[in-house]
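Worked example

This section walks through a single chain of length 758. The input is the sequence exactly as stored; nothing has been trimmed or padded.
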Amino acid sequence: QTFNQHNAEAPNLEQAFRRMAQMEPNLDHDVSWFLLPSYWAKMLVALISFLCFANSYDGDFVFDDSEAIINNKDLRAETPLGDLWYHDFWGSKLSSNTSHKSYRPLTVLTFRINYLFAGGFYPVGFHVINIILHCTISVLMVDVFSILLGGLQFSNKGRRLNLAPKSSLLAALLFAVHPVHTECVAGIVGRADLLCALFFLLSFLGYCKAFRENKEGHTFSVFWVLVSVVLGAIAMLCKEQGITILGLNAVFDALVINKINLLELIRKLLYKDKSLENAGLLRKGLLFRITLLMCGGAGILYVRWRIMGTGPPAFTEVDNPASFADSLFVRAINYNYYYSLNAWLLLCPWWLCFDWSMGCIPLIKSVSDWRIIALAALWFCLIGLICQALCSEDSHKRRILTLGLGFLIIPFLPASNLFFRVGFVVAERVIYLPSIGYCILFTYGFSLLSKQAKKKKILAVAVLGILLINVMRCALRSSQWRSEEQLFRSALSVCPLNAKVHYNVGKNLADKGNQSAAIKYYREAVRLNPKYVHAMNNLGNILKERNELHEAEELLSLAVQIQPDFAAAWMNLGIVQNSLRRFEEAEQSYWTAIKHRKKYPDCYYNLGRLYADLNRHIDALNAWRNATVLKPEHSLAWNNMIILLDNTGNLAQAEAVGREALELIPNDHSLMFSLANVLGKSQKYKESEALFLKAIKANPNAASYHGNLAVLYHRWGNLDLAKKHYEVSLKLDPMAPGTKENYNLLRRKLEQLQKKGG
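Given that input, the structure is written out below as C-alpha cells.
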C-alpha cells in the first residue's frame, strides 16, 4: 500500500527532495562559479584533463619504465599468464629475497595487452592508455565530488541528485589539472596508480548505489555492497593503496548515510550512555555493512599475504634513510617532515622531481633544525581541521571536513611508514588518491571565502588563474617526462643533493657516447654518496674503456668491498685485472661474479676471453658454450667459438658451430662473415661467397668484409672481382692490415697475365 502511494506522488517527489536539500546548507549557495549541465561539466573536465597531458603521448620509455616494461618478461607471449599471479610488478618471483613485494598483476596484464596489440615495445600505445585513464578518472570525479560535497540524495525513480553542481565541477577541475599527477600520467609505470584510482572510485560509486531513500528511512542492497568490496579488491590488485577504499566507504556510511556525530558517539561510548541503543545503527544496517566491509578487507589481505609470503620487502638505507635510523625520535620527526613535504606538493606543486631519495632530503637529527617549522605548520593545520571536523555545531561542515580529511589521510596510510617500511622518501605518484581530499578541502575553503568576500568575481578569477597556471605546469612537466634526458636534467635544480639524479644524468650521457660529461656526473654522484656502488661501477667501466685502469680498479674494488654480492662489479673488476695482465686475480673475480649470479652469460663470455688469452682453449670454448646456453642470442660468444676453432685448424667443428649459431641468429652479419671465412678455407667457395655477399648487404661499410671476400675470389681465381673488392676495402680503410699487400700481389699477377696474353 505504501509502495502504491509513493507511485501516486511520484511527479512531486523529486521536487520535494530538491526543496528539502535546499533547506540544508549547500556549498553552491556561496560558490561563485560556473553552473553547467552534468553532461557539459563532464565534457569540460575531460577536455581540460586531456589538454594537460596530451603532449606526453609520444614520449619514450623513461626511468622505471625500463624495468617494469622493457625488461619485464611477464609482458612477453612466451610467459604463461598464470605466472603474473606469482610475480611482482617488476617480473621477479614474490618468493625471491630481492622482490619488492609490489603485487599488481592486473596492471602488468594491461601492459602485456598493450605490448601484444602494439606488436612490440612502442611507447605511444602505453602513453595513450594512461591519458585516457586519467581523463576517465577526472570525469568520474564530477560524480564523486557531487556526493562528497553535496550529499547522497535520490529521486523516487532512483536517480541520484547532484546537489552541488558548481562545487563538484570546481573540485573535479582542480583534480584534473593538478601537476603532481604528471608522474602517474606521463610516466607509464604510473598506470598502477591510475587503474587503482579507477576501481577505487567505482567501488565508492558502487557503494553509494547500494542505497535508496524512501519515506521510512534508508534501505540498502547487499549486492552492491559486495560489488563494492570486489571492486576494492580489483583496485588493490592494481596497486596496494586500493584496499583503503573499504575504510573510506565505512567512514562515508557513518557520516553521510547514518549522519553520526563522531564526538557525540565517542562521548556516549566513554560514558556508556544508554541512548546508544536508540542511535539507529542496527536499524539502518550500519554495523552489518561495516562487518561486510571488514570481512571482505580481511579476506583480501589474507589472500594477498598468502601469495606474497610473510617476508617483508628488502629495501636499502638509501631508499628510505629515516626508516633505518636507530633513534625512534629521529624516525618519527623525519616521517612527519616527509608528510609535510607531501602536503606542500599538494599546495604548491612547483618543485617536482622523479626521485626524492639519496640525500635529496637530508635527515633531521636535532630539534634545532629549522625544518621543524614545517612539522609544526602541518600539525597546526591538521589539528585545527580535526577540531572543526569533530566539534563544529554545523553538521554540514563536520561532514565535509571529515570526508576531506578521510580522503586525504586514509589512502596515504600505506605510504606513511607507520605499518611497514616503504622504499621511498617522497613519491609524487602516491598522492594521486590523497589529492581527492585536498580538492574537497580547497573547494570548501573557497566556498567559505566566497561567503565572506564582497567581490566574489575577483575570487573566482583568482581560482581560474590557479587552474590556468596548473594547466601550464602540467604541460611543461609532461614535456619533461617525454625523454630521460629532460626528466633527469629537470631534477638537478630541484634535488641537487640527490646522488641518483646525478647518476641518471651521467648514465644518459654515457649511453649517448658523451663519456667525458658522464664522468663528471658519476664523480659527483660518488661524492654525494660515497657508498653508491652503481655509480662506482659505471664510472669504473668508463675509466676502463679510456684505459685508466688503475683508478678503475680502485673504484671497482671499493664497490665489491661495500657490496660483496655485486656481480656486475666483480665481472668488471675481472676485465680490468685481465687488462692489467693479472690473470689469476681476474679469473677469481669472474668466478665470484658467477657465484653471486648463477645465470650470467656476459661473465662467462669474458671468462672465455681470459682463457683464450692464456691459450686454455678447451676452457675458453666451454665458457663461451655456457654463455650461449644461458643466452642463445649471444653473438660475441658464438663468434669467438668459430674464430678460435678456425684458428686452431678445427674447420669442421667451426663450420658446425657457425651453422648452429646462424640458425639461432639468422640475421647476424658478423656470424655470416666468420662462417664464410671457415667455408672459404674448406674450399666451399660458392657457399662462402653467398654468405660474404649477404654480410656485405647487411653491413656494406665493413672494410674487412670486402677484403676477405676479395681474398676468396683471389683463391678461387675470380681475379677481376677480387680486384674490385680489394679496392672497395682500401677505400673504406686504407690502413686495413694485409689488404694492401694482397692487392699489390693481385696487381702483379694481373700484370704478368697481361704480358703473357700480349
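What to look for: Residues 123-150 form the longest helix (28 residues).
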